[in-house]
Amino acid sequence: MEYEKIDWNEIWKKLMIAQQKLDKMGDKNEYWNKKENAELFWKRSQEHSKKTCDILMELPFTSNSRILDIGSGPGRLAIPLAKKVSHLTAVEPAKGMIEILKENIKKESIDNIKCINKRWEEVDVENDLDATYDIVIASFSLGMPDIKEAIKKMEQASSKYIYLYWFAGVTPWEKHSIALWPSLYGTNYIAGPKCDVLYNVLYNMGIYPDMHVFSMEYTNNFVSIDEAIDFYKKRFIIQTNEQERILYKYLKNILVQKNNQLVEYGHSKRVRISWAKD
Length: 278
What we know:
Layout: H1 8-22, H2 28-32, H3 35-46, H4 49-58, E1 66-70, H5 78-82, E2 87-91, H6 95-107, E3 113-116, H7 125-128, E4 133-139, H8 147-157, E5 158-168, H9 172-185, H10 195-204, E6 210-222, H11 225-236, H12 241-254, E7 256-258, E8 261-276
Parallel strand pairs: 1-2, 1-4, 2-3, 4-5
Antiparallel strand pairs: 5-8, 6-8, 7-8
C-alpha cells in the first residue's frame, strides 16, 4: 500500500471500535453514569493535582478567554480554568460526571460554566455552543471512532487554538487488560489507537501540529486487597468467582505494600498535540 493512500482515520476507527468491543466497560458512559464511580474518579484526580497544574500552565489563555472543554469529566480542568477565564463550556456525555461537575461548580461558587450533557459527536456547533472559543481542549477524551469528523467539529468551534492530549504507547490500564483478558474472557485484548495514528490523521487533513511528549506517573492507593478488588471488579465487570480469583492473584502480584497501604504504580508516555487556527 502506498503511504499516501493509507486512510489513517479508518485505522483509528478500526482500532477504537475493536478496543471498545473488547472493553468490558462496553459503553464507558454506562460506567461513568453512576455517580459513585464519577465521584471516585474526582477524588483520585485531586490526589494528582500537579498534572492539572502542568496542563493549565501551558494553555495560552487570558482573563478574557472563552474555553471549550470536550470530555470535561467532573471538572478536573474546567473548575480551575473557569476561575481564570471569561467563560467555559463543558461537554460531558456521562450523567454521573455531569452531576459531580455541577456539584463542584456550586461548591466553588462558579457562575461562568455552561454544561452540555452530550457526546461530542452529538453536539451541534451552531445550536448547542455559544459562538466560537479561543481554545478548544480535549484532554484524554478522544474516544470518538470517527476522529476526523470530531476534529473538523473542533476546528469549527475554535477561533484560535486546539489542544489535544492523548497517549503515546500502551497505557498502564491497557497493560492490565492485555495481561488479564486471556484468563478472564478467553481472548486477547486490543489496545486503542495512539498518537502516531492521530498525527497522521491530522497530517492528511493539512494540519501540522506541535507535539510534546511527556511522562506521567500515578498511584492508586488501597487500604486493603478487598478495596483493590472492589475497584477493579467494577472496571472489569467481574461476574464470576473464577474471574475474581484470577483478579485477586493478579493484584497480589502487582500491588506494592507501602505505609500500611497497597499501591499500584503506573507510568505512561503522553503527548500534547496542539495547533493554531490559520
